Amino acid sequence: MTPQASVLVPPNISWPALFSKLLPLVLLLLLQARWGCCHPQCLDYKPPFGPQQPLVFCKEYTKFGCCDLSKDEEISSRFYTIMDNFDHSGFTTCGKYIRSILCQECSPYAAHLYDAEDANTPMRVLPGLCRDYCSDYWWECRYTLSLLLEDLGNPPQFANLTSAIEEDHKRFCDVLELKDKQYCYPNVLTNAELNANLGLVREDPKGCLELCLQEVANGLRNPVAMIHADDGSHRFFVAEQLGYVWVYLANGSRIDRPFLNLTQAVLTSPWAGDERGFLCIALHPRITTVRKAYVYYSVSVKKEERIRISEFTLSAHDDNQLDHSSERTILEVVEPASNHNGGQLLFGHDGYLYIFIGDGGRAGDPFGKFGNAQNKSALLGKVLRIDVDNNDDGAPYSIPSDNPFIGESGAWPEIYAFGVRNMWRCSIDRGDPATGAGRGRMFCGDVGQNKYEEIDLIVKGGNYGWRAKEGFSCYDRKLCQNSSLDDVLPIFAYPHKLGKSVTGGYVYRGCQMPNLNGLYIFGDFMSGRLMSLKEDVATGEWQYNEICMGRDQTCRFPKLINSYYRYIISFAEDEAGELYFLATRVASATARAGVIYKIVDPSRRAPPGKCSIKPLPVKIKGKLIHFYPKEEFVINKKPTTTPIPTTTPKTTTKATTIKKPPVRKPIIIIKPPMPTRQTSKRPPASPTKAARRPTIKTTGSAIKATIKTTAATAVKPTAVQMGAANPATTASTGYRATVLTAAFSRIAQTSVSPTPATKKNTGSPSLPLNLPQPPPPTPPTSLKRPQTAGISPARRKHPAALTTTWAPYSSQKPTVTPTQKQKTPASTTAPGARDDKPSPGKKLASAAEGNQVHKRPRGRGGHGSKKRRGGKRRPAGTVRLVSADGSSDRGRVEIFIRGEWGTVCDDLFTGKAGSVVCRQLGFTTALAVMKRAVLGAADRRVRILLDDVECDGGERSLLDCKRSRVGKHNCSHEEDVGVICA
Ligand SMILES: *[C@@H]1O[C@H](CO)[C@@H](O)[C@H](O)[C@H]1NC(C)=O
Ligand SMILES: *[C@@H]1O[C@H](CO)[C@@H](O)[C@H](O)[C@H]1NC(C)=O
Ligand SMILES: *[C@@H]1O[C@H](CO)[C@@H](O)[C@H](O)[C@H]1NC(C)=O
Predict the structure, then answer these.
(1) Which of 149, 160, 695 to mutate to test the pocket of ligand 1 (most atoms within 8 A of CB)?
(2) What is the pLDDT at residue 162?
(3) Which of 233, 235, 249, 627 to mutate to test the pocket of ligand 2 (most atoms within 8 A of CB)?
(4) Averaged confidence pLDDT in the chain
(5) Does pTM surpass 0.90?
């Protein structure tokens, strides 16, 4: 069956000996295994995809990720359900964290972020964060963890733990952190190596395309062909060289009765590399009505070897069997030698039957004056085209009227193309699914003589050059220089160091692997090399890439394997256009060592639902034989540190012949494909619900219950210490607001109201308790609520940059803030503020003080003269943060100048200015500067005291910064600046 005369039997290599030589190399490869640590993968253990419709919530994953629109909507709804627990400032601060965390399900690296790449280990309930990001999250929004967990249905492993974790920075981040610094969120977004070719076919450093395989059938004896009926049944028919054709159902089960049993007639032998035998089958394109099939096989007639093309009719009782008594010979061609029997049969889009016949054998096409292939009075070395329709009466076939040599004397009218050596496997391009481009092209692999293997595009009347040429080079010099040769050059030829017997393949036009569209995939029978060609439409040139098996983690998807047996006998396409190849471990017609592999691109799949097929039911007579894969799934293999002999080297197909892996039962996935989510079923939070969360309130820094503010619960040492300069009495640092605070904040924010807010903003529980409306149904187009109006869409693209003025992510960590290194120690405030410390036990001013009306001092003489209750003078430049919920570490910035508290405009205010403010208040640094009154706008009676403030960061107070004159400004309270300190 080997279409190549030379080197038919592989040399007897001692594998153990070879292997010991390779050992150091293999070890090295194993050491490098980390290189491919993490591959794009979704939580359903499948590759990511480009959604069919754009996402509206997790927009950054619209081009490529793990969510389609309905998943996106589900996440959006979960987000708003969670965010119902927040007031506007909480929303602003924590929304971005919640959103980013929820949206990681859509990340193309979702499985990695959730530790879900290995289906046999437990999966995280929340995506793994980078340590710094986790720290920021903890500082700002730690109490949202319980909301997230609640949204996940309170996973048992966190039962009774959540509040403890929330309080403990280290434990919190130990739980949420993903140790891998490159692949944790958000670093994974910016990792250049990971993102460079995201979504494209993965290539190794040499440009070899890394694909994976799925075992589809096994135990076959030299499977030479696999075809489908194109009748909606999605069955496939597999031919074995010794003369069987088997029917496989769409689900992989095989019917035990053969579709065809020609074993008695077929001429072949168990000799490895025998090119004779049952070589091909083609079903009539209208099989359901015409009910005919055509076969191509070797036969011995009167001691003469022939190839025979014959016709069978489907059994009247069983669509899965041919009527064995119906055989009708269409054509027989005498073969002068036992090799080069050709063997391809297919129907063109024109409805005609194409027959590909070899040159008759031996080396160099020796028969006749100039061989058979260039001789149009021989059928050998040709592509024939015949019409088998309407042949029931009379001749078995007719000649299509436009066959190219119909009028040429001495030429067989059946000839469609010539100059063929031994075409082994041809296919017809279905055309681009969208544009139809390429449709109908006929590709063939033509096996070469001593030097070159070639791929040809078959055209009517074409001369493919043999024996004048082999590939692009001359074989028979005299013929080659004959100007009348006028041959069609191959689209590609490769030398024998890459392989010695081409197996033509298919142009991929299926649905499931969008990356492969238009790729012509073929292989070599002797070297086991898989190869691809892609046409550059602009130049018409074909670009070559080898195909290798995905290494390391690349193929760690359920059911995938990354090795194959190296005798690549044939390629195939199923009814949906997915691509397969047929190979065997032992190239003998009697060895049950053949496997059918489906080619899988692990880099990208089609969006869910796009490729679903519904096979039409098939009436089955006889029994079904279920399929059990025998090869070991990559996912079940031990990590690459396993002792060598059990690990199959990834890129060499040779290794596959070393040892057959043990038979495995189908994989059992013990993890659920997705965490179960409770989505928007949960009613909006109510006061009672909030009150039912005692654990949250009891903790010192909890702000959730903003009402309370027992100063004693303040846990942040710096805040307590520096309380004098910090009028906010609650040391709350979290940002989860209860419904009550949501109500407060609404009142507090009504800065346009002329009514003094004094009584309303004290946090007294006696406030009018308007049940808050759940936040208005926000169109899920963005995170934008009114408060975030100033955020530009561009910034929102990066989840971590949701808020306007974040410093680059890495610099948010207090310890790396440059300002901290400057002269002022973290706990030192401006000197003037130092003696303003409260006496112990003294009640601190209410957080809501900022909304009180401050009397403006008359005249300028008021500077510094105003006394507080304690009789102490408040120095000019003292600052405080005013927030609706009384947070000490964040709020609108107010500065005390000349006896009066006023606000600061935001337009030139940066993180450096923010750090001046924060250090005055005893914090280390400013985590964020919030512009456009995101942390609240002052009542209009509060003066705007500073504008155009530009600081270096080292100043003792804002008054020392570059700025406009006190009280001179061209802004409004809509531009009040706020800061978040840490
Ligand atoms: C959580 O606490 C409850 C009540 O104390 C207890 O019954 C339950 O077993 C605890 N669950 C876990 C997982 O510790
Ligand atoms: C495959 O499909 C056939 C026909 O629908 C059914 O009888 C058989 O049980 C299926 N095999 C498997 C493994 O599900
Ligand atoms: C195929 O045919 C041969 C001879 O006709 C017979 O011996 C053999 O049992 C058949 N095989 C099957 C699977 O039916």
Answers:
(1) 160
(2) 78
(3) 249
(4) 76
(5) no
